Amino acid sequence: MKTREERQALRASMPRTPLSAHHMENARLLPDRGELLYRIPNGGIGVEVGAAFGEYTAEILEKNRPAQLYLIDPWSMDRYSSGLDAIHTNFAAEIAAGRLHLMQGTSLEKLAEFEDDFLDWAYIDTDHSFDLTWQELLLCDKKVKRTGRIAGHDFCTGNTVKPIVYGVVEAVTKFCKDYGWQFEFLTVESHAHFSYCLKRL
Q1: Could you tell me the residue ranges of all domains in the chain?
Q2: Apex 8 CA angle, 4 and 13, nearest 5
Q3: Consecutive 10-residue runs of the chain (201 residues): their mean pLDDT?
Q4: Which residues lie in coiled coils (predicted)?
């Protein structure tokens, strides 16, 4: 675990990207990320990057009703190693029907396997570091259709219980400015682990 000084240095090393009004002017607040699933493209092709035990997967299938849903996760960390078995058990029917596809491996390896402009949306929920989130966003910029959405979890400064510094806010704001995306939705859960949803300008 990093010391307070190390966390402060990490935070200071991340870019501070000021956004213009047009990056935020069409954004709406939603109560939670479950509600977000009704707002991103329904009935299409989506990917959940960082599926863990499949809790959010169940909500995606119920509320978003994608025609095809891809799950990316290495399922290799001790904390999540039993997640793959749980997903096989809980979603056996969707897997057998060819609606749910499991892609075991790192986010960058597996996102790169999609054809460009293939996805209607992507939802990112991995390690929340600036570097990895930035690389994931760059890949999603290519893999998501022009009319698609990029969303993700933990749009906040960190986990105060651990404590761990996150770089999601910095990566997402820099991505919006550098690559021409804007905020469409932000969620406002009471636990403050917010989700974001982006669309192209």
Answers
A1: 28-200
A2: 150
A3: 64 75 93 98 97 97 98 86 92 97 97 98 96 98 98 90 86 96 97 96 94
A4: none
